[in-house]
Amino acid sequence: MFCYQCEQASKGTGCTAIGVCGKQPDVAALQDLLVYTLKGIAFWANKARENGTKDNEIDRFMIDGLFTTVTNVDFSAEAVSSFIVEGVRLRDKAKTMAGPVTGTIPAAAQGWNLPESIAEQVKLGELHGVKDYTVDDDIHSVRELITYGIKGYAAYADHARILGKEADEIYAFTHKALAAQLDDSLDLMANVNLALEAGKINYLTMELLNQAHVAAYGHPVPTPVQLGTKAGKAILVSGHDLKFLEELLKQTEGTGINIYTHGEMLPAHGYPGLKKYAHLAGNFGGAWQDQYKEFQDFPGAIIFNTNCIQKPADNYKGRLFTWGLVQWPDVKHIDGFDFSEVIKKAQECDGFEENPGQEILTGFGHNAILGVADKVIEGVKAGAIKHFFLVGGCDGAKSGRNYYTEFAEKAPKDTVILTLACGKFRFNKMDLGDIGGIPRLLDVGQCNDAYSAIQVALALSEAFECGVNELPLSLVLSWYEQKAVAILLTLLHLGIKNIKLGPTLPAFVTPNVLNFLVENYNIGPITTAEEDLKQILG
């Protein structure tokens, strides 16, 4: 196997024996074969669209297929194999839709046969791995950047579709961009432009998801979240999907079961349509990488609804469930919105005793922040607020991430920190105080709520009549998986510069591609909190 799509790639170069995430070589090969299959579908679907023909079944399958290959989503060989089988069927359907074409047909789009056994499918997948030695290294690097960016926004598109929001522009670009990866006539800059367009599509997708969330649950409002526990039975929800949480809250209302969030579900507490449920009790634990240790102490049922699952401990495996595209071998999977099995398991468990704890704030979406924009602007003009930092992104287990804790600790008291995604767990329990009643630490939400952070930046640039890059605003980001890649491409698409990225740079970015990013966007790696603060603030 070879995989380097996440920040924790072994030795900083790639996983070759087993994934650091826990992905086994057979699953890695099957995921490679699935991506290969998706590129074949894209070739024909793109041709069909050029002829004015499109198909919802194919469009939606592409998104699900890409999302299932994101880091820490699907670890089941059987589940990935099922996707490939369906993909081959849809490839042939797309070919029929496209009709006769002229020119060379790439191998991925040809009518290759899929073996019936998973073992033989694995062998076929090993022939279509990540590395492509037939193209220039820099072109291959940018192709990988595009692929991972598309995988990232596929996750957001999936969440939005569950809430009834879709955009054909997302589907059209997905086909076009994946088909372009089979076209060796495209030069480096053509691929760079596709990468920036992927950033544009991710921005559209995040906006669509934001609209879906607000339409269903209202704008987030600043909300204190309890880190302690309530007496009673308990279910822990980890992931990103808010519709899932709503349905679980409905089904557990009046049962005496309390619902706790974990990881990226924390911002759910800020939505009026979700916080109205009194048994949405609080948040348990921190970021995804601590689940193995923390979940052993959770005395109830646990369910994952999107990525960030890792190998479970025997202590809680029997009360662990997965939903949606998330799967782990020998863990019970829930299809649809019937959570009776999860509820039954929670009722069988001991539950918590009453033990109140610290409260932290969430819910500072762009609507909430812009609601006090006059105070923010006044604070800047008066010199009370000297600088804004966006410090957020993915968390992870790799060493070096204490940098983000130190950065928040050492940021001067006349600066404001916006944060989002699970990277905030590095410092969101700190009391950083306030400036004129405005908290110095503002939790904007999930990783997809980078859209809200961008809206705040755009509003400030309009208020101060300057470009975003001229604002007293600096982005200090942590990355782990492909959604972070999609967000980075969005920032580059918007022309945002001077981004600091860590804890390490992507292994799939070649020196020449990195040099392009440095020269055009002044993007660079983090160093130390002290040095970076000194360099930013002067």
Question: What can you tell me about this protein's structure?
Answer:
The chain has 538 residues and is α/β, with parallel strands linked by helices. 44% of the residues lie in helices and 13% in strands. The protein is built from 19 helices and 16 strands. The strands form four sheets. It has a six-stranded parallel β-sheet with strand order 4-3-2-5-6-7, covered by helices on one side. A six-stranded parallel β-sheet has the order 13-10-9-14-15-16. β15, α18 and β16 form a beta-alpha-beta unit. α2 (56-67) packs across α6 and α6 runs antiparallel to α7 (188-217). The N and C termini lie far apart (46 Å).
Per-chain topology:
Blueprint: H1 25-50, H2 56-67, H3 77-98, H4 118-126, H5 137-162, H6 168-180, H7 188-217, E1 223-226, E2 233-238, H8 242-252, E3 257-262, H9 272-275, E4 280-283, H10 291-294, E5 301-304, H11 314-317, E6 320-323, E7 332-334, H12 340-348, E8 359-362, H13 366-370, H14 373-381, E9 387-393, H15 402-410, E10 415-420, E11 434-435, E12 438-439, E13 441-445, H16 450-463, E14 473-478, H17 482-493, E15 500-502, H18 511-521, E16 524-525, H19 529-537
Parallel strand pairs: 2-3, 2-5, 3-4, 5-6, 6-7, 9-10, 9-14, 10-13, 14-15, 15-16
Antiparallel strand pairs: 1-8, 11-12
Amino-to-carboxy terminus distance: 46 Å
Strand order of the largest sheet: 4-3-2-5-6-7
Q: Count of helices? A: 19
How would you describe the shape?
Answer: globular
Radius of gyration computed on alpha carbons: 23 Å
Quaternary structure annotation = single chain
Largest sheet: 6 strands, parallel
Number of strands: 16
Low-confidence stretches: none
Helix percentage range: 40-55%
Strand content: 5-15%
Q: SS-based structural class? A: alpha/beta
Give the overall pLDDT as a whole number. Answer: 97
